[in-house]
Amino acid sequence: MSSRITLFNRELIIYIFRSSGWIGFLYFIGLTFALPLEILTIVLNENSEYVKFENLFSSQQMIQFVLVIVIPVLLAIFLFRFLQIKQASDFIHSLPITRRSIYFHMIGTGIGFIILPILLTGLILLLFHSAIDVEKLYTLADIWSWMGITFFMEAMIFSVAVLIGMVTGLSALQGLLTYISLALPVGLFVLFVANVKFLLAGFSADHYLSANINSISPLLAATEMEKMGLFSVNILIYGLLILLFLLISLFLYERRKLEHVSQAFVFPMIKPLFKFGLTISMMLFTGYYFSETTGKLGWIFFGYIVGSLFGYYLGEIVLQKTWRIRVNLKGYVSFAAVIFLLAVILKLDFVHYESKVPDIKMINQIYIGNNSLDDSSNSEFTYLKEKENIEALRLLHQQIIEKGKKASIGDVNKNHSIFLMYELKNGKRIAREYHLQNYDSYLPLLAKIYESSEYKKTFNELLNVSTEDVSKINITASGELDKSVSITDSQELKEAVHALSEDLNNQSLAQMTNSFGDYASIDILLENNNIIYMNWDSSYTQFSNWMEQTGKANGARLMADDISYILVAKTDPQIYNSISESELVQRIENQSNRLKLDQTSEIESAIDNAQIDWGGDYSAAFYYKDSRNIDIKSFSGDHVPGFVLDHFNK
Length: 650
Description:
It is a single chain. Helix 2 runs parallel beside helix 6, helix 7 crosses helix 8 (171-196) and helix 8 (171-196) crosses helix 12 (270-293). The longest helix is centred in the N-terminal third of the chain and has 33 residues, at 99-131. By secondary structure, the protein is of the alpha+beta class. The strands form three sheets. Strands 5-4-6-7 form a four-stranded antiparallel beta sheet. Strands 9-8-10-11 form a four-stranded antiparallel beta sheet, with helices on both faces. A three-stranded antiparallel beta sheet has the order 1-2-3, with helices on one face. It has 23 helices and eleven strands. A hairpin with a 5-residue loop joins strand 10 and strand 11 (630-635). The radius of gyration is 33 Å and the shape is globular.
């Protein structure tokens, strides 16, 4: 009889169902609304063929997400709430049962409250599948996948919540720390990567942050459960972590002192981990905040100091449970010394991260762009493979490193960025990103790379398309105009594509990176229904001549006859990002020394040299004859018309 009591205690089971059984029932009701009832509604809907239903995870996705991240935490809190209440703790531990058995009772029923609603919901879905036509909505494999992934995700969150419950004596703190712990891996990774770039030249924070890091946090992974596979590596890792966390929880529970109820942390060793973990998190966050808002190194270091002090003080408040505390600065000084030492070690670069340039014999191909986010999609880079380009890119990288010793690499200057991604012959990748202050000194090498035939064919889709693949070209005038031309004749299509291809092949680096003379947009429709989008500007001389010769230019592009007049004014570059377009127009109109252009030759020159953005040396407001809307453009550098310079230099 005693052994049966040890294995299965009736009083304990009754206590568990009274305190936590409602959570399992609530979970089942939630799943019923999210899946069976939703699917039944879709089936009975007469227009069900128009309902978008990708998989079982997409059915009431928000409800499922909330259930997955909330139910396991609630179960862990209420199952082990007896550890935070003295009367309940005395009752549970007075039962004729060991702590280990109590723990297994709690964990077993907790897992049961998770898995039973999932199984019942899966059974209903199976009945639907066998009784009605739902094959277009989900398959039998979808049911097993949904059940398995949902269970592992919830069991993972449950195990973390149980582990947190073993080290704290406050239920509210258990819930809060559970969600913090679940998000902490991603948060610390993001903050660490965002701050390392200040110490290591060439470190590409954007490259690492653009990777799919959600899987390292179950809380964030729950938002993308539809992307998981039941037999994926992530599920295997989750399974191992569940076992590990539950075993650690058992180890801590058996050594927990029962009198430590209502205490923030019941194990003394946890307190410094919490305090210094909060300190370093706040330090990294404030440093990153000031780097993004000011870009000044002085402010960044100020952010490190203020953030670490605030985090340290906040940690003491939580641990001592009072605002009126006496801060132990000795501990903070020790923390600061350790952080400074780690920063020095990282900056000394013992692994030669900053100076490493792969040997040309090891390189398979190289990608170059402005940054890893703007120039790649889903981490799939378009590489250059020709030997000449690989040699030029290596030489560019070496020059950046050498000139970097003379302060050519700016820590926070992002006006001119270079991102390099090496793919080695062994399959490994090496990424580097630099923000260059003396960008012009690299232009000869950059021109050799960007103006190469391989680069242009790689990044200009039109150069890889046969004229027979083009079915139609639509040209729509820029600005506030209702002008467009369509080209469908086969001979004209060939001539137009040939002219555009010639212009692309003849473009210089300056023309590729700065667009002046925004005439029109070009949509090239292919036979496979794909579309190539291009902008027609003043650098497209071959295409412009062809459009003139065929008489299509006037009906397709912005012309001087479309403009009533243009107002030009020299404006403060600091205001571009802080005022609206209408406010800028008003500033231009109110300037006493503004220049008005109303002669055809002047307007033509202005159209040919204007750039779309407002960041030039002179702002220009274009007033149309047939529209009340006003376009803002600008002039800069060598593209400022002479008559504009003459007017403002008087």
